Amino acid sequence: MSAPYYATRSPMAQPSRRRKAPVVWSAWRPGAPLRVDEKRSFEENGYLVFRRRFTPGEVSRMRTEADRLRHGAAGLVDPETIVREPAGESIRSIFELHRQSDVFRELTADVRLLDVARWLLDDDVYIHQSRLNFKPGFEGEAFPWHSDFETWHSEDGMPEMRAISASILLDDNTACNGPLMVIPGSHLRFFPCAGETPEDHYRESLRQQRYGVPDPELLTELARTYGIEALTGEAGTVVLFDCNLLHASAGNITPLPRSNLFLVYNAVSNRLGEPPSGLRPRPEFLASRRLEPIER
Ligand code: 6CS
Ligand code: FE
């Protein structure tokens, strides 16, 4: 049997491959939820930034909920969905928010997110993964460079690049407190990563990812070719990015927290299959197999 098209995590890194899937699955016509220039920009760069998409009042409600979950975590959320920072005990992430919080469940159906996701993916959608990455002041450690699809394909069995992430900034993301960084255009090729995935890799990767990180030589070449953009913005900004876009964020050594919410919309037709890695499928809180298409 030939190796999967998006083969990765072999002992030696393999050459990159052209992306098979379109970036935007719908044909643009008047009335689409994105302007034609936005559609073109997303196709070319792999991301879009929508400033002030949510009002200060809406952000305040989300932040209050995020703080409630963080402070009351042990009693309020499934302990398995809590990931702590590698060095200390601070909470790094809480997953499966859409099933553990009414506020965040409601948000998945907000038309400012849902309509764009359904249009870009040209399908009904469900939440593949939701998470709050808190990146607390002084303790929030880095997220190394990676493509989410590289993980979701190899470890979760996501068949194709037909998913997008919507990140809602709950704090001002400045040049200083570890904003999301992207390599524009990197979503157009698949970059296999070297190193065989350990069993239950997520127990380590969610705290400090080592497998699924492209090698420094490749990252140097891509950064020189495409540049690196830091997606700063005030609280309420929405960053929409393709599942295969290379992204990262630095550690936060400022007193200013950088809490960002991530909702990952997957096309119903792109539901998870068996992981090509042959590994045990990752848990439901990380990679949903219980499809719940979102109704408007
Ligand atoms: O493994 C995952 O699904 C998670 N890891 C990273 C670094 N980004 C996507 C996702 O949160
Ligand atoms: Fe990621």
Helix content: 10-25%
Distance between the termini: 42 Å
| Largest sheet, strands/sense/barrel | 7 strands, antiparallel
The CATH superfamily turns out to be q2cbj1_9rhob like domain
- Calculate the mean pLDDT score and round it: 96
Cofactors, ions, other ligands? ligand 6CS, fe (iii) ion
Radius of gyration: 18 Å
Structure description:
- With 296 residues, this protein is of the alpha+beta class.
- It has a single domain, classed as Jelly Rolls, CATH 2.60.120.620.
- It contains 8 helices and 13 strands.
- The strands form 3 sheets. The chain has a 7-stranded antiparallel sheet.
- A hairpin with a 6-residue loop joins strand 3 and strand 4 (91-95).
- It is globular and about 50 Å long.
- It starts with 16 loop residues before the first strand and ends in a 29-residue tail after the last strand.
- It binds ligand 6CS and fe (iii) ion.
- Residues 129, 131, 143, 146, 148, 151, 202, 205, 209, 286 line the site of ligand 6CS.
- Ligand 6CS binds at residues 129, 131, 143, 146, 148, 151, 202, 205, 209, 286.
Relevant terms:
binds ligand 6CS, 13 strands, four-stranded antiparallel β-sheet, seven-stranded antiparallel β-sheet, binds fe (iii) ion, globular, alpha+beta, Jelly Rolls, 296 residues
